[in-house]
Amino acid sequence: MADTTNKLNHDDDFTLVEVDNRITEKIDTPKYSYWGSVAKQFFSNKVTIAMLILVIIILLMSFIQPLFSGYNLMDVSKVNDFAARYNWPNATYWFGTDADGKSLFDAIWAGARTSISIGVIATLITTFIGVVVGAVWGSSKKIDRFMLELYNIISNVPLLLIIIVLSYTFGNGFWNLIFAMTVTSWLSTAYFIRVQVMIMRDREYNVASRTLGTPMNRLIIRNILPYLTSVIVTQISQLLPSFIGYEVFLSFLGVGLSPDVPSLGRLISQYSPYMTSYSYLFWLPVLVLAMITVSLYIVGQNLADASDPRTHM
């Protein structure tokens, strides 16, 4: 009798529950999104946010303000108006005026539009050709031999010298300058991508994928290039300021662009004699140039760091 009572008491201690198959299939780990993690990592840095805001302001001013100012580098209609000449920065002329009575504020943003446009176009062309050629280069041993010899020859010639020679050969012009900048600069990017592809292609999962019959082009597009996003962004962040710097240096020498095309380099060259007398004419374009190159580089580098999956842990 006592055993029966104890058995009944033990049965009351347990309650049958229904099994919910949906709950058993639920994954408790948080959902991972690559681009969401990139955005979270990128915007977690206050310096990055400040530089990004600065880049947006500069881009808006460079591409919108000249549409309303109607700035013309060759305009000398106010050269005899002494009241309009050499005005220091004030409420009417925020950046002052030059010897021809033209607004330096209008000149700087018109010049920045040209410099940024050249830098962006040259960077896109160099990156696209470099990534495509580098991916093929790193996956083919036959092409590797020829491309290495080509790279060893051209890489020993300074890029700036090539740009200057080609600019003199083809003459001044917007697209001529872009051609001179990009005709050989893609080789460095291609070589860098080639090294990364060669490292990635021999990893175990890629070797297994090739063993199972995956074509090399599919292997590169699906398995290798997506992992090189941070590397490609790093290259872009380095190329963009460098191409802007090349344009400024060449325009300072009077090479590359036509005389009627404003650029930051041309402004710096034109106003360099006023470095001490009317210093605002020289230092304000230099300041804007520094803001452009530094902000673009910092934003690019931080974006490259954020796009690296190892920083998402």
UniProtKB/TrEMBL annotation:
The keyword Transferase does not apply. Coiled coil: none annotated. The keyword Amino-acid biosynthesis does not apply. Keywords: Cell membrane, Membrane, Peptide transport, Protein transport, Transmembrane, Transmembrane helix, Transport. The chain crosses the membrane at residues 47-68, 116-138, 150-168, 174-193, 224-244, 280-300. GO terms for cellular component: plasma membrane. SUPFAM superfamilies: MetI-like. It is found in: Cell membrane. InterPro entries: BP-dependent_transpt_permease (IPR050366), MetI-like (IPR000515), MetI-like_sf (IPR035906), OppC_N (IPR025966), OppC_permease (IPR054864). Its main location: membrane. Residues 112-300 form the ABC transmembrane type-1 domain. Gene3D superfamilies: MetI-like (1.10.3720.10). GO terms for biological process: peptide transport; protein transport; transmembrane transport. It is a multi-pass membrane protein. Belongs to the binding-protein-dependent transport system permease family. OppBC subfamily. PANTHER family: OLIGOPEPTIDE TRANSPORT SYSTEM PERMEASE PROTEIN AMID, OLIGOPEPTIDE TRANSPORT SYSTEM PERMEASE PROTEIN APPC. This is Abc transporter, oligopeptide transported permease component. It comes from Lapidilactobacillus dextrinicus DSM 20335.
